[in-house]
Amino acid sequence: MTQEAAATARLLTAAKEALENYHDVHVDDDGALTFRHSDVPCAVQAMQLAEGLTVLSLTCVVAWDLPATDELAQSVAERAGQGLFGTLGVVRTERGMDVTLRYAFPAEGMAATPLGTLLMLVVATASQLRTELLTESEGTAT
To answer: pLDDT tens digits, residue range 75-114?
Structure first.
């Protein structure tokens, strides 16, 4: 096992242990961790950006197939500027608009409790956003 692979494996193991305090966590074939927070599917990956800089990347699929209205897109853009833990992304598809929340951070050496707290801050934000966006989309659907 390379040094990079060992570093990312250690980090994913720490993330898994931290998340298991809150969720059932599955390890995918590629080593990524997946879990659901309420109705929000989430995935955690680890990568080494440079020697000595290994990061965790958390992606939450906040909502999908939302009505692709200008009002809803504006609402997502406003939330993106509110200093969330993470970056909101919007993708327009044939079925509407999909929204993701992504957060990447250096986590090497973090203890399980603060690591779990940080991850849960992000996924709780994603769940709150999902609730708000679904409520808004009901009002904007044609």
So the answer is: 888 888 776 788 999 999 999 999 999 999 999 889 989 9
The two three-digit tokens of residue 139, written as one number: 């009002």
Tokens of 122: 């992000």
Q: Which residues contact 113 (CB under 8 A, 6 or more apart)?
A: 18
pTM of the complete model beyond 0.85? yes
Domains of the chain: 3-140 (3.30.1460.10)
Rounded (10°) angle between helices 112-140 and 3-19: 70
CA atoms within 13 A on the CB side of 83: 0
Question: Residue 34 and residue 45: Cα distance in Å, rounded?
Answer: 9
